[in-house]
Design brief:
Peptide Methionine Sulfoxide Reductase, Chain A, 25% strand, globular, two-stranded antiparallel ribbon, six-stranded mixed β-sheet, 25% helix, alpha+beta
Length: 160
Amino acid sequence: METIYLAGGCLWGVQYFLNTLPGVIKTEAGRANGQMQDLNSPYDGYAECVKTNFDPKKIKLTQLLTYFFEIIDPYSLDKQGMDIGHKYRTGIYSKDPNHLIEAKAFIQKQPKAAKIQVEVLPLTNYIPSSPEHQDHLERFPQDHYLCSIPWDLLDKYKET
């Protein structure tokens, strides 16, 4: 099993989508690469992300990133759909340097690669989201309108 952290705007839709992919073992909604400043602003600088455990024998990292790029606008800076702000930036984070090398190579092969705004950085820290944010769209599918990802795309790979 390998782990990568994917930030694509609102974490509810990203987590729901990733959970539908073959080879994804487990996900957890959280926040990555910020700083704890004080108790009043515990998520300062963090990106909303999804910790994604996957089986590389069932899904290669490049395939996982191909799926991920279906649900994000990689050319948008600090914005996905109606979600605006630095915490909604897109990013690929990992503790494994090989993941970062592979992610950068993947991005370089994309159309207009020089204009892509997706961060590719080492994971410096991670905070899991509270329980009410875990698998939110599974529990409250009526909230899908809050996500920038269209519902039919969210369910594109869901096994029936």
